[in-house]
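The authors assume throughout that readers already know how a fold can be written as discrete tokens. The format is easy to grasp once an entry is in front of the reader. For illustration, here is how one protein appears when written out as sequence plus structure tokens:
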Amino acid sequence: MKSVQVLLLTLLSVMAASAQVLRLGPCPQPPVQADFDASRYLGQWYEIKKLPTIFQKGECAVATYSLKAPGVIGVLNRELLEDGSINAIVGSAKVKDPSEPAKLQVSFNNSPPGPYWVLSTDYESHSLVYGCTNFGLFHMELSWVLSRKPTLLKETMAELDDILTTTGVDVSKMVMANQDDDFCWALRQ
């Protein structure tokens, strides 16, 4: 029992130090996008804001989704690091249950798959993504507001914030992404 407590305290310390969002209780089960169509979701999405993560260190984040194989979406995430270099990671996303196609599982570099749930999208301007993983008495949340352009209307962001708030996400913990053309030019070439 003592080793479990030490492991749990270590996990909590690492997540707290990295600004990861960790909350008491099990993951919520929010409704996802009805009749999700992965083929319409393909293409490029700009990160507008997110809950902090330990694995994203840069700015100007862009995700590109492509059809990799039947039922498999290729994922390419790119970001601009502080030293001016571009960090990229390749992965794939698969639908876990065909009856809920908006609940995808994404994995990178042979890592265990993580949840990537599309809560809302109109396919042409915005996407709201949520993920949550249970860790015993706690859960860790991830969320991104994405756009087809480097900006998103404030009204749309307010609507997406309302969806997250209804889910129980503390939107005040979300951080805005830097998508300034002058700053992000190296990533957009």
In short: The chain has a mean pLDDT of 88. The CA atoms of residues 47 and 146 lie 5 Å apart. Helices lie at 2-17, 38-41, 154-167, 181-184. The two ends are 53 Å apart (CA to CA).
